[in-house]
Specification:
With about 475 residues, the chain is mainly alpha-helical. Among the domains are: about 70 residues, no CATH class; about 210 residues, Rossmann fold (3-Layer(aba) Sandwich); about 50 residues, no CATH class. The protein has 16 helices and seven strands. It starts with a helix and ends with a helix.
């Protein structure tokens, strides 16, 4: 508690009330945050209020316990390491929203909803990271924001976050190499680092042996080979001697480990589900004894409502009343499932876990179903509109055709009447043509007869000529002889 109190500068604690609030805050961080249940946390607050009334009689309990009772290293702005009290929740929100925006510009984007509980966790994690040799154990179900809030808190402290990348071949040797790399950066280059380690990354229980040693003393046996230790000692010798460290192997190595402890902060993110955390705490006591514990309780209803509002704000949900009803229904349905899960546990002795991730999946499911349904309705509307448009066009075309048919019918009647008027004339012409045809046939018949007579006459003449040709030839011969 007093280690935390000493992080504040004297000029920041200007009066006895603020000093008492600082004491209450640090006590809450040390004792309250380790408690697993909301009921125990409430008992602690009642006890703290009782002690405040007992030992700070001249101060108003309301003033002492006024919210937000939050001290952090970025109360006066990110980058200003002054450990001071946050003036209001809205100011804290502005600070962290700005930090999140800056973070997203240079890192993978985190779409966080910074409701009050989330901001309190960021302040708690930041306090741990800024503490000399501070390590954290964040306990909460999956999806509660432990890793994301750690990254944001590390950003406010200007720390680099490192987490191992698990693969099928990642083993103890790989973890050692990663740890050696972090040790060199923190111990030789004084780079502030956050080692983010989750229970899902414990693919080999031997990992926890090294993590346990790291938390307990900062020194991991066998991490560096003797020749590597010699190189490190030679590299830190001049800096260490200037700091007043004796020029001996043990002292120089101790200086290196001290630098590592000052700059390397481990944040463990474990889930309380199952017995693994209890078993590991017994086997590796430093996981609990050498860390500051922060329990992530189930999101309160106002937090759920804030998250719901954030992720549904960009969707058109109709009127303001309808939108508010839908947003409020999300936390209501989540709470209803939690109640049913409790009844299910009592009746069947089986757990049904609902996590913040489940709530986010509920909202995502609603969004996807709404988008899909709206798409189907939109397609149906488009089909109906297209059908109506086609019917309208067809109706207009039919009307135009009907009008055209009416005009054509009038023209047909006119032409029909004209044709009917021409029928007598055509019949007379037909009769005259028939008469002329008969006359022509008669003339043709007579001509054929005359042609036959002429042909007969021609044939007779040709015969007579043929008969006369010998006599004509004889006469011509007699004439020639004369």
């Amino acid at each position: 508690v007093f280690q935390g109190i000493l992080m504040a500068r004297p000029e920041q604690v200007s009066d006895s009330v603020k000093l008492a609030q600082l004491w209450l805050h640090e006590s809450e961080r040390v004792y309250h945050d380790r408690l697993a249940s909301a009921a125990d946390q409430k008992k602690y607050k009642d006890l703290a209020l009782e002690q405040a009334k007992k030992y700070f009689k001249e101060m108003s309990p309301t003033t002492l316990m006024s919210e937000p009772l939050i001290f952090c290293h970025f109360a006066n702005g990110v980058g200003d390491k002054t450990y001071d009290k946050v003036s209001s929740t809205s100011d804290l929100s502005l600070l962290l929203e700005s930090a999140l925006k800056d973070y997203n510009e240079t890192h993978a984007v985190m779409d966080l909803v910074l409701f009050e509980d989330a901001m309190r966790h960021v302040a708690r994690i930041s306090r741990i990271l800024e503490s000399p040799g501070g390590h954290a154990l964040l306990v909460g179900v999956g999806g509660s924001g432990k890793q994301s809030l750690t990254k944001l808190a590390s950003y406010t402290a200007a720390y680099t976050v490192f987490h191992i990348v698990i693969s099928a071949t990642y083993g103890v040797a790989d973890l050692k190499e990663d740890l050696k790399d972090m040790y060199r950066k923190c111990g030789l280059k004084a780079i502030g680092m956050t080692f983010l380690f989750t229970d899902s990354q414990v693919t080999d229980e031997r990992f926890l042996v090294m993590i346990n040693d790291l938390l307990a003393s900062g020194s991991i046996p066998g991490l560096f080979a003797p020749e590597d230790q010699d190189d490190i000692i030679n590299e830190v010798r001049s800096t260490a001697i200037r700091s007043g460290v004796a020029d001996s192997r043990e002292a120089l190595w101790g200086y290196f480990i001290h630098q590592v402890q000052q700059n390397l902060h481990t944040v463990l993110c474990f889930s309380p589900i199952g017995d693994s955390i209890r078993v590991r705490a017994r086997r590796f006591p430093a996981l609990v004894n050498c860390v500051t514990i922060d329990w992530f309780q189930p999101w309160p209803e106002d937090a759920l409502a804030s998250v719901s509002k954030r992720f549904l704000s960009d969707i058109d949900l109709g009127s303001d009343m309808a939108k508010a009803s839908i947003i409020n229904f999300m936390p209501y349905s989540f709470a209803a499932v939690n109640k049913l899960s409790a009844r299910y546990l009592e009746a069947e002795r089986r757990h049904n876990y609902t996590t913040p991730k489940s709530f986010l999946e509920l909202i995502a499911l609603y969004r996807s179903m709404l988008t899909k349904r709206r798409g189907e309705i939109s397609e149906s509307v488009e089909r109906y509109v297209s059908g109506v448009q086609k019917l309208k066009v067809t109706s207009e075309q039919v009307a135009a055709l009907e009008e055209s048919l009416k005009q054509k019918a009038v023209e047909v009647e006119q032409k029909k009447a004209k044709c009917e008027g021409m029928i007598p004339m055509l019949e007379a012409e037909k009769a005259r043509a028939s008469d002329e045809a008969r006359h022509a046939n008669a003339v043709a018949t007579e001509a054929e007869k005359k042609q036959a007579s002429v042909e007969a006459m021609k044939s007779s003449i040709e015969q007579d000529l043929a008969a006369a040709e010998p006599a004509l030839a004889a006469a011509a011969a007699a004439l020639d002889s004369l």
